[in-house]
Tryptophan 2,3-dioxygenase
Amino acid sequence: MVDATNTRPIEDEVVRDFRTAMSYGQYLNLEQLLGAQQPVSEPEHHDELLFIIQHQAAELWLKLVLHELRTACEHLAGDRLQPALKGLARVKHIQHTLTEQWSVLATLTPTEFVQFRGFLGRSSGFQSYQYRAVEFVLGNKNAEMLEVFRHDERAHALLSGLLGRPSIYDEFLRHLSRCGYPVPAPLLTRDVSRAHTYAPELVPVFRQIYESAEENWAAYEACEELVDLEENFQFWRFRHLKTVERTIGFKRGTGGSSGVPFLRDALDLTFFPELYAVRTEITR
């Protein structure tokens, strides 16, 4: 029989009194979280809320990505490969969410964005210190980037610390060496404050792993997880590029970059070049 009121009664056991119990909103600190969207356009433009929430949501996901990647580095340093891969699997799901999120911002038309873009001043996604931190952990180190965050003590300290720490690729190569793989010694003692560059002498190590996958399954699986990670990152970069191109064309970025050309150059950056190069060498 259909309930004529079209309502669902609240069960007696459902908690109603939160004078002494912690509520959902208190646990998540929703008052502060939902109060953090402060449009600056005058008069306030309807679509600025979308722009703010899009970027704030991305920063929350980046916080979790950074958390998982740093923990994965610790696991690799302790030769705990499986927990490290578990963390990378979670990161891959977050990357899919971050990439798909661009489709929401793409609903912001050029006509709508131009009406409040000027109010952003010099602020730009280029200044996302969490994004730069993720790049540092993945291995795209650039000491020049620290100058952008000189004004922010917390961001500068985070990036300075990560600049001097091994990337996840450094930790993986060290793990492989401890497992008996002939990783070239210079790669194990290199200056980790600099971006890793292509080392052809590393390719035979990965060729051994790939051509004898059954005997090297743990390392083989880890290599493919890292390739997934980089591929997803490139998908995110490309979707970012196309969303910017769709929204502002070839205008300069608010932070001073060339805009679309600057984003396109990032597509040439790679974290794990030997894991791609080895594919040309595999013969069986």
Q: What stands out?
A: The chain has a mean pLDDT of 96.
